[in-house]
Amino acid sequence: MERERSGMLRRHLPSLSFVAVLTTLVAIGAAVFIYLGVYDVAADQPHTRPVFALLETLRDRSITVRARGIKPPPDLDAPERVRIGAGLYGEMCSGCHLGPGVEQSEMSQGLYPRAPELAKAEHTHDPAEAFWTIKHGVKLSAMPAWGKTHSDPLIWDMVAFVRKLPGMTPEQYKSLVASAPADHDEMMKDMPGMK
């Protein structure tokens, strides 16, 4: 009986040669697709829905998995962190991610995919995921890896500010950015490799 089942199972499974031929054909098809430039990568032409959904899921799952185990500092809501983060955000992030009362820039209008407007409540993120994203950036999205030039404490300051953005009025936003304890260059003067 066991032999009969095993024999039936083998008859229903494709042979190794069939799998090898199929794999080779798929690889050749993919190579031709890529070489001929069939897929339009222009930033002014949106991805197809399936491709966009696949890339969005890939990005979100990648960030979630890599952010596991990152622990926010206990003083993440400290006003000083938020003020420092406001100054960094105003200089480095607002051109793409905008802010309350900030008009779209030429750069923000030309990005695809568009940078999320972090002042909108639907873009709130887990602090660990926000930290990972700011530190490491995201390929093919124009999101730079700020961890190459900014220390972890400064990145946590940006996270602290970004968490406060949703619901902030334009006046509160301007006030916080203006209240930053130092300008960007002053904050960066002691960073390795910065002049």
TrEMBL record:
A Pfam match is: Cytochrome_CBB3
Q: What parts of the sequence cross the membrane?
A: 12-38
**Keywords on this record?**
Heme, Iron, Membrane, Metal-binding, Transmembrane, Transmembrane helix
Does the keyword section mention Iron? yes
Query: From the Swiss-Prot or TrEMBL record, what is one GO molecular function term?
Result: metal ion binding
Q: Where is the Cytochrome c domain?
A: 80-166
Instruction: State the species of origin.
Output: Sphingomonas aracearum
* Name this protein carries in UniProt: Cytochrome c
